[in-house]
Amino acid sequence: MEFSTYKDERGLLSVAEIPKDFVVKRIFWIEAPKGALRGQHGHFRNKMYMILQFGRIELNNILANGSNQILSLEETGQTTFIDCNVWHEIRFNERSLVLCLNSHSYDKEDYFYL
User: Fold this and answer.
1) Global confidence as pTM
2) Contact yes or no for 102/23 (Cβ under 8 A)
3) Which CATH superfamily is domain 24-112 in?
4) Coil, helix or strand for 71?
5) What DSSP string runs through 28-56?
6) Residue 3: enclosing H or E segment and its boundaries?
7) Where are the domains of the chain?
8) What is the pLDDT of residues 60-96, one digit of tens each?
9) Which of 30, 31, 34, 95 has the most Cβ atoms closer than 10 angstroms to its Cβ?
10) Comparing C-alpha atoms, which of 36, 37, 2, 35 is closest to residue 18?
11) DSSP code of residue 64
């Protein structure tokens, strides 16, 4: 998912087109202070777009093949996709807000932990 940003004297407008094969079933956001750890789980079915609204976060993802992926989101609108069967941990490097678009509704049976 890519954002286009438009800025003028009235402010900033950011727009993204959601891929046609991704149906949003659940939306939530996380606001956390510097040093907070969130996530620390994965999903069997749910897929998610994570969009940084403000702040700085670091994602530690353990992929289905066992490899480790570290990503930093540092600019408003930066987005990452978290596929199913990916364990993820979010470290908040400063007070931050993250918007999450999910492919499935909440289901406690969909979660796994390491």
Assistant:
1) 0.90
2) no
3) Jelly Rolls (2.60.120.10)
4) strand
5) EEEEE-TT-EEEEEEESS--EEEEEEES-
6) strand 3-8
7) 24-112
8) 999 999 999 999 999 988 999 999 999 999 999 999 9
9) 30
10) 2
11) T
